[in-house]
Specification:
Length: 330
Amino acid sequence: MQKPKICVFNYRDFDEGTYFEKISKELNIELVICPTGPTKNSMGLAKDCQCISIITTPIDAELMEQLHLLGIKMISTRTIGFDHIDLAAAKKYDIAVSNATYSTNGVADYAIMLMMMSARKMKHIMQRANIQDFSLRGLQGREFAALTIGIIGTGKIGQTVIRHLSGFGNPILACSLYECEDVKKYAQYVSLSELIQRSDIISLHTPLDESNYHMINSKSIAAMKDQVILVNTARGGLIDTAALLDALESGKIGAAALDVIEDEFSLYYNDLKSQVLSNRNLAILRSYPNVIVTPHMAFYTDQDVHDMVYSSLKSCLLEIAGEKNPWRVN
């Protein structure tokens, strides 16, 4: 019997490689490997494959048509988010789309780390220490446990953030399309407007879609507390970057910690140290002492990388076999 054949784009041998080798053998899958993302020129590698596995490369209608002509049955993204894939085009060409799942601890703990670093002005402290400036002026932080934390989105990651935060003693507010009974043990559900008005720290943990694009904008920021801390480990498009910059420069927002930003897809996971950044807003944000910017790596733990590879390959295997696929999103 012929092995299922999957083309893996965005393949990284230094971290995913061991897992792909081990899990593909366990699942009896043949892999075609490409270290770069799918493009019009590289897509031919997927010939004779039933599925492709990607990370965050945008798949637009043109690439979707090319995949259709190659006979691809499914695109599996090794990420929870799938907003980089044109779902309407996938539906048009009858191509399934699936995402990945992984342990929620990585992103949840990273978000809490960013909250605490922001509250204690850690970026500014480290910048000074690097030049042997050990003075105290301007570095006084805030008592973390006294800060009211608002969690927008109580899916699996949001729930884990709230559960882990409960040990610090913070007042916790939550807002979500769907309420979770377990969350109510540790947090109070309120409306989005109330959460925005009452929170000292606001942390985003919701998927991005048309309904919440730029949910953090000039109007919502105006309703926030002065010196609010904003944390985003979800999707960059949840925040209007122009409004964020204005609020940081005016002092309305006291600090921001961003693992994701708008228009990051051509930047993150690439070595650009000798290049001029094409995203001007990213360059500006990185220059502020009260803004922490990291390259979309809150998920990046050994357990999570394993889980991403496994769920992507297993999802493809189920789709090829015509079996129920819990990772399918369309």
